[in-house]
């Protein structure tokens, strides 16, 4: 399935998921945007976007926000969604931001929600699974769960922007992290200056 799933869960940093979707759509990729209930609550608090309502209503709000009718969205209990099956596994899955609760449930092999099931599908089908934890400090359980996920094949990409390129805005910090996600997916971008480019 030529679709990249982006999931927003209940950690701070919903802007990472939003910005990633913008870049994926601009690159011509098919995107399915998922959001947990707590992810929607944090999204509303941090950005003012109110994507409550039925799955269909949320889909229309998302499409209006991104200005495209091609964006897909599925409810968290919709296990008939194409992305829930290994026979129609997505090209890649990015959970940005990834709450530690979500990471722990995926590490335990649970599939109680569509986000957890899609992550499980990515692991079992050996598709890219990128988790963007936005938590600090980590406790021992967080670290053990992230290590377990890394050993299972997931890529752990914390929301840690660099400063060597002297970012001048919050947007530049967000773009650095999103650019690293795109690098991991093998998608070209120009979101940040790479080390050694442009002189000192």
Structure description:
The protein is α/β, with parallel strands linked by helices. The chain has a single domain, classed as Flavin prenyltransferase-like (Rossmann fold), CATH 3.40.50.1950. The protein has seven helices and five strands, in the order E-H-E-H-H-E-H-H-E-H-E-H. Strands 2-1-3-4-5 form a five-stranded parallel beta sheet, sandwiched between helices. Strand 1, helix 1 and strand 2 form a beta-alpha-beta unit. Helix 1 crosses helix 7 and helix 4 packs across helix 6. The longest helix has 16 residues. The mean pLDDT is 96.
Query: What's the architecture in CATH terms?
Result: 3-Layer(aba) Sandwich
Mean pLDDT: 96
Helix count from the secondary structure assignment: 7
Which secondary-structure class do the elements indicate? alpha/beta
Distance between the termini: 43 Å
Give the uncertain stretches in residue-range form: none
CATH superfamily: Flavin prenyltransferase-like
Domain tally: 1
State which percent range the strand residues make up: 5-15%
Largest sheet features: 5 strands, parallel
- How would you describe the shape? globular
CATH fold assignment: Rossmann fold
Radius of gyration: 16 Å
**Order of helix and strand elements from N to C terminus:** EHEHHEHHEHEH
Brief summary:
The protein has helices at residues 14-26, 37-47, 55-66, 100-107, 114-124, 140-152, 170-185, and strands at residues 3-8, 30-35, 92-98, 129-133, 155-156. It is an alpha/beta fold and 200 residues long. Strands 2-1-3-4-5 form a 5-stranded parallel β-sheet, sandwiched between helices.
